[in-house]
């Protein structure tokens, strides 16, 4: 497993991190806790030592599962936990709240659910337009100085927002959406991380499972699954993206890889990317992970990937629909 450093954390982290949104059950059609805990064990066995989560993942349920799993397997000190603050959950609705009081309350609740005395990387999940960034940054800095967290990150922040944040508090990591189909972070967010020494953790590496290669035109999603209303998974775009996945899979197979392995390797090979998050809730979804390590894409291969995507996806769309509304 390849490793990378995050300032403030005294161990290097795996370049593949385990994403746990689906373990919370909410927005992914449910989950099974025993399978989720077995998935955590499987990820650790494959060399993963970074687990990314958030209170919004099932109103704290994903954090509870992680806490139970790490107590059961005794690996808390071997794992870097990255969680988040900045969203409130009420009656199944998630809204932004990055006020000082909300951040402190959320961090304390996460510590309890995770059954730990520190959070290795605490990230602001989304910027909150109703709260000054300076207030948010000051609250995060206080948590850092208290020893309750080891490093500070932000997710879904623009470079000007991060500039403002950094006038008040240090910033060690950023987490934008980024994959073969959603590349807006290339314009400014990824370069910003490189310029300012931030470790970039990318989420959505498999584009909500689209790049797993397991979906087809007859795949159905229950109403409780966010893909039931994701524009990528609805006509006419869905057919375009499936065609791209089929062509990418053929290209990958010619090189002895799967499209899933190609997609994650592509993310890891991009400039200024430190970690690609790999979402899973069943152990079998971890099995392909080893095939991402030990090789790199060549220039011709990267150009072929670009050609396939541009040819197949005539009506591209980003992940904007996932943004929670302001309170």
In short:
With 327 residues, the protein is an alpha/beta fold.
Descriptive terms for the model:
8-stranded parallel beta barrel; alpha/beta; TIM Barrel; 13 strands; 34% helix; 327 residues
DSSP helical segment count: 9
Largest sheet: 8 strands, parallel, barrel
Helix share bin: 25-40%
CATH architecture annotation? Alpha-Beta Barrel
Q: List segments where confidence is low: pLDDT < 50 over at least 5 consecutive residues.
A: none
Q: Please write the CATH class name.
A: Alpha Beta
Structural class: alpha/beta
Indicate the mean pLDDT. Answer: 93
Question: Can you put this structure into words, describing what you see?
Answer:
The relative contact order is 0.15. The protein has one domain (3-212, 270-294): NADP-dependent oxidoreductase domain (TIM Barrel, Alpha-Beta Barrel), CATH 3.20.20.100. The chain is built from nine helices and 13 strands. The strands form three sheets. An eight-stranded parallel beta barrel has the order 3-4-5-8-9-10-11-12, surrounded by four helices. The chain has a three-stranded mixed beta sheet with strand order 6-7-13, with no helix packed on it. Strands 1-2 form a two-stranded antiparallel ribbon. The model has no long low-confidence stretch (mean pLDDT 93). The chain is of the alpha/beta class and 327 residues long.
Element layout with pairings:
Blueprint: E1 3-4, E2 13-14, E3 16-19, H1 33-45, E4 50-52, H2 61-73, E5 80-85, E6 87-90, E7 93-96, H3 100-114, E8 119-124, H4 133-146, E9 149-155, H5 159-166, E10 173-175, H6 189-195, E11 199-202, H7 237-253, H8 259-269, E12 275-279, H9 299-312, E13 325-326
Parallel strand pairs: 3-4, 3-12, 4-5, 5-8, 7-13, 8-9, 9-10, 10-11, 11-12
Antiparallel strand pairs: 1-2, 6-7
Helix pairs in contact: 1-2, 3-4, 4-5, 7-8, 7-9
């Amino acid at each position: 497993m390849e490793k990378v450093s995050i300032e403030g954390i005294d161990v290097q982290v795996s370049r593949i991190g385990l994403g746990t949104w689906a373990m919370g059950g909410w927005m992914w059609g449910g989950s099974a806790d025993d399978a989720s805990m077995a998935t955590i064990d499987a990820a650790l066995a494959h060399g993963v030592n970074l687990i990314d989560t958030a209170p919004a993942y099932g109103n704290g349920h994903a954090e509870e599962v992680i806490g139970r799993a790490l107590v059961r397997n005794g690996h808390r000190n071997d794992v870097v936990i990255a969680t988040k603050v900045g969203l409130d959950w009420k009656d199944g609705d998630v809204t932004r709240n990055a006020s000082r009081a909300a951040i402190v309350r959320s961090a304390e609740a996460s510590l309890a659910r995770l059954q730990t005395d520190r959070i290795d990387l605490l990230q602001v999940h989304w910027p909150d337009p109703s709260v000054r960034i300076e207030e948010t940054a000051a609250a995060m800095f206080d948590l850092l100085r208290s020893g309750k967290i080891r490093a500070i990150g932000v997710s879904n922040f623009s470079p000007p927002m991060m500039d403002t944040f950094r006038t008040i508090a240090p910033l060690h990591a950023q987490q934008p959406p980024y994959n073969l189909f959603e590349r807006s972070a290339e314009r400014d967010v990824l370069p910003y991380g490189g310029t300012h020494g931030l470790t970039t953790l990318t989420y959505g590496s498999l584009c909500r499972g689209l790049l797993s290669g397991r979906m087809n035109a007859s795949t159905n999603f229950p109403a409780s699954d966010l893909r039931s209303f994701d524009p990528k998974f609805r006509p006419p775009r869905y057919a375009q993206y499936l065609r791209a996945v089929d062509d990418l899979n053929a290209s990958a197979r010619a090189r002895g890889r799967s499209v899933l392995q190609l997609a994650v390797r592509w993310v890891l090979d991009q400039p200024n990317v430190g970690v690609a998050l790999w979402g899973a809730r069943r152990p079998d979804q971890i099995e392909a992970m080893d095939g991402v390590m030990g090789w790199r894409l060549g220039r011709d291969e990267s150009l072929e990937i670009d050609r396939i995507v541009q040819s197949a996806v005539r009506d591209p769309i980003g992940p904007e629909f996932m943004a929670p509304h302001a309170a």
